């Protein structure tokens, strides 16, 4: 029996045997008795207990049965300065300063700032000596912060990772399982904040091993996620169920491989799937590429054919992550052509991720290269879509179908061309890919147009050998040969001409159409002449190109060479018997175009080749009129010297001299030449 009485003999409280036993379990019986009596009296007075005439301290040994005398004293209120001193002393763990301040009877649970007692501050800063002193002064170890439901000294010690203060508080009877506002217990909070040693201390001191924290997660689950192997081992040794909430899955999900290895060795269920996502431990071990765990799971007969919520097997996960060694270890126990919800096999996944070594391993194990996914796409089409030439070569090398089409009608060749994957398209042609299949819109694709427009001579040759017509039109209206001419691609021009391309086939290109009724047409020789590509002009002339064909604006090739001042091309055309007096729609010969281009050399060449120096246009203008109209003094003098008639009048009755005076009255050189 233990009784506490006032000096008058009045019994204040009497503790039963059960109460005494519980208080002894908390540590110091004397401390527990003082705390209980202080609670009974209230916080407005200080309680001191006397045993055999001496003041009871935490270390006082009380021999039962016993009767303690109680003395009630009034607390003194410290000043603001003294409160600040207490706060600083506790924060710095300055026990001497704190003892001096408490030499006067201060209430130990008094708030020293807006929400905390001195013991809260000691817990926050890890001030062990001050915490012990305050506890001896009957500070409440379970007092929450003001205006809060949590924030006991133990909460603050755990929150700041103060293990030693936490130990002192627990010895003084702090509630080890009091929840934080977040729902965490001190144990789960310590684990979540990576205070593994502190979590171990709490558990060893008797904190609950199964009480859930935030997100309703047990200490075991949180420890598995955080990778706290010591905590997981302690809880496993305590007999906790290792399959509740699947801590093995959580450890693998968070790459806590040491914890996962231990749980497997401790016989956690290796087949247990995630309740929502369907992952098994083998799925996750494969996704992370952890060979040892994969081998351990296989040794425990983990089923590699189990599927997750997306119908993916462990092989899908290993392939997607590119872990070759794991893929190789699964080859014997996995179906290589299993399809997920999207219809994709492991080979599809490896191709899309560009895992070349994994693709090679799967193909060597005879994985099907022709399986189609939900969109009808094969691994080859996926590789083409990714623009991966070496992957395409690997797949074609294993005799995959180079002619099959997707559900939308894409063939390997049409997809390569559509994606501008020229090297892949060339390789497919060399592999004899189907060039006669309909495209995604049900049309026969013109692969030769792609080869020509992209300057791919090799593919063009292969297509022409496959009987593709060399006389088609590009989308912009050019003939293939005209496009090659304008691109200055002599090799491509030769390729088309050897395939019997029509050297005089006209297209819809016409940059100088001047009349509404002029049909837009242009032959390859017009294109080469207008671009000044002499070597192509020569090649076309060798193939009997028509030197006097007019384009849509009425210009012949020689007009174009005069316009571009290309003397070499003009000479080649003249050598091929091009007419020097070929008229355009306005009756202008190449000589007029040369004058307008201010090219004296071209005028000299044309006159040397027999151009008519006095041939008039429909308006009666002669070359000399034209020189006068454009202010070409040197050309006018040369024409006069060459015998051009200065007195010819045009349809308006004007002579060249009249035009010179009208347009260039200040040009004495021109006037003198025409006077």
From TrEMBL:
InterPro entries, sorted: Ankyrin_rpt, Ankyrin_rpt-contain_sf, Multifunctional_ANK_Repeat
SMART domains the record matches: ANK
One Pfam family recorded for the sequence: Ank_2
Keyword Repeat: yes
Primary gene name: ANK1
Source superkingdom: Eukaryota
ANK repeat intervals: 114-146, 149-181, 215-247, 277-309, 310-335, 342-374, 375-407, 408-440, 476-508, 520-552, 586-618, 619-651
Family annotation (PANTHER family): ANKYRIN REPEAT-CONTAINING, PROTEIN HOS4
Entry keyword Repeat: yes
Designated name of the protein: ANK1 protein
Keywords, sorted A to Z: ANK repeat, Repeat
């Amino acid at each position: 029996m233990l009784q506490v009485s006032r000096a008058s003999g009045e019994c204040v409280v009497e503790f039963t045997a059960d109460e005494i036993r519980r208080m002894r379990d908390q540590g110091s019986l004397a401390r527990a008795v003082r705390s209980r009596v202080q609670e009974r009296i209230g916080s407005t007075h200080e309680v001191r207990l006397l045993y055999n005439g001496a003041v009871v301290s935490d270390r006082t040994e009380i021999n039962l049965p016993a009767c303690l005398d109680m003395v009630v004293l009034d607390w003194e209120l410290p000043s603001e300065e003294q409160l600040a001193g207490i706060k600083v002393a506790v924060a710095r763990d300055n026990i001497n300063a704190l003892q001096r301040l408490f030499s006067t009877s201060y209430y130990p649970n008094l708030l020293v700032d807006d929400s905390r007692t001195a013991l809260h501050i000691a817990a926050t800063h890890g001030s062990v000596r001050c915490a012990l002193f305050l506890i001896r002064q009957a500070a409440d170890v379970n007092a929450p912060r003001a205006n809060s439901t949590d924030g006991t000294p133990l909460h603050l010690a755990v929150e700041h990772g103060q293990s030693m203060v936490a130990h002192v508080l627990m010895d003084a009877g702090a509630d080890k399982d009091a929840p934080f506002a977040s729902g965490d217990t001190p144990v789960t909070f310590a684990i979540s904040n990576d205070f593994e040693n502190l979590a171990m201390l709490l558990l060893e001191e008797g904190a609950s091993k199964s009480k859930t924290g935030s997100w309703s997660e047990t200490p075991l689950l949180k420890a598995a996620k955080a990778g706290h192997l010591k905590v997981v081992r302690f809880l496993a040794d305590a007999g906790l169920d290792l399959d509740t909430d699947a801590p093995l899955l959580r450890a693998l999900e968070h790459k806590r491989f040491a914890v996962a290895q231990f749980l497997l060795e401790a016989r956690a269920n290796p087949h247990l799937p995630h309740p929502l996502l369907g992952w098994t431990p083998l799925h996750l071990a494969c996704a992370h590429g952890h060979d040892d765990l994969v081998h351990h799971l296989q040794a425990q007969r983990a089923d590699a054919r189990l599927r997750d919520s997306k119908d993916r097997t462990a092989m899908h996960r290993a392939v997607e992550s590119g872990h070759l060694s794991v893929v190789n270890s699964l080859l014997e126990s996995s179906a290589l052509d299993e399809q997920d919800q999207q219809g994709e096999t492991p080979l599809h996944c490896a191709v899309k991720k560009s895992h070349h070594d994994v693709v090679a391993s799967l193909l060597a194990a005879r994985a099907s290269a022709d399986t189609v996914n939900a969109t009808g796409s094969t691994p080859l089409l996926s590789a083409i879509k990714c623009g991966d030439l070496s992957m395409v070569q690997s797949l074609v090398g294993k005799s995959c179908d180079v002619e099959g089409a997707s559900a939308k009608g894409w063939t390997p060749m049409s997809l390569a061309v559509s994606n501008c994957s020229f090297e892949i398209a060339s390789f497919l042609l060399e592999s004899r890919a189907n060039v006669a299949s309909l495209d995604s819109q049900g049309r026969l694709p013109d692969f030769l147009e792609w080869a020509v427009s992209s300057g791919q001579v090799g593919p063009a040759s292969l297509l022409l050998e496959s009987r593709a017509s060399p006389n088609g039109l590009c989308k912009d209206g050019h003939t293939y040969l005209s496009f090659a001419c304008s691109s200055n691609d002599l090799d491509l021009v030769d390729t088309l001409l050897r395939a019997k391309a029509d050297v005089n086939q006209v297209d819809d290109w016409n940059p100088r159409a001047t009349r509404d009724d002029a049909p837009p047409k242009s032959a390859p020789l017009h294109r080469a002449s207008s671009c000044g590509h002499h070597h192509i002009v020569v090649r076309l002339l060798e193939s009997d190109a028509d030197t006097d064909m007019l384009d849509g604006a009425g210009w012949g090739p020689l007009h174009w060479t005069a316009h571009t001042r290309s003397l070499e091309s003009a000479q080649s055309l003249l050598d091929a018997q091009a007419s020097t007096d070929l008229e355009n729609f306005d009756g202008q010969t190449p000589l007029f175009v040369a004058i307008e281009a201010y090219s004296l050399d071209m005028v000299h060449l044309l006159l040397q080749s027999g151009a008519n120096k006095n041939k008039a246009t429909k308006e009666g203008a002669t070359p000399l009129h034209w020189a006068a109209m454009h202010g070409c003094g040197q050309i006018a003098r040369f024409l006069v010297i060459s015998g051009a008639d200065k007195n010819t009048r045009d349809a308006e009755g004007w002579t060249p001299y009249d035009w010179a005076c009208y347009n260039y009255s200040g040009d004495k050189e021109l006037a003198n030449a025409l006077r």
